[in-house]
Amino acid sequence: MGDEISEGHARMNLAWLLSRRGKDTDALLQHERALSLYRLCGNEYAEARALNALGEKLAVMDRASEAVPFCSSALEVMERLGDTQGIAIVLDSLGYAHYRLGSFAEAVSLYERALPLREEGGDRHSIAVLHDGLGDASRRLVIVFWRARPGAERWKSWKACRIRTRQTCA
């Protein structure tokens, strides 16, 4: 047996590089290989990172329905390990997958679960990115509600969503 952990890390880094160059299919393959290596050596944390990376990449590639099971599995592992920042990262990815599926209410719920964990970690960039996703999903949710309601019901829905958004961002 060789050094599977190091090879897995190298493949995750290569996947990131390939993604930056627009080679998503090749990146996906590297994430899959890293996942296999991490499973081979029993590194649960690295496995969860690879599962999440696979899910996130699939969502970016318009394959969000395939992404959800990977992210959900990663979330289970991160929760079992008690890694709050890992949980936040996976909730963010899972929220994005649901956003891409058009499940805006679920996306908002997942982003809202991730927000306090991210704030606890103090990474301002990650918090800002999460707020961006939450805001976009909330906006899309308002549009869905708006279109689904006739006349006076639209105004009530709009007011309710604006109040909820203010409370979330306060």
Automatic annotation (TrEMBL):
SMART domains hit by this protein: TPR (SM00028)
Coiled-coil segments: none
UniProtKB keywords: TPR repeat
TPR repeat locations: 88-121
Pfam families found in the cross-reference section: TPR_10 (PF13374), TPR_12 (PF13424)
Keyword Methyltransferase assigned: no
Source taxon at top rank: Bacteria
Protein name: Uncharacterized protein
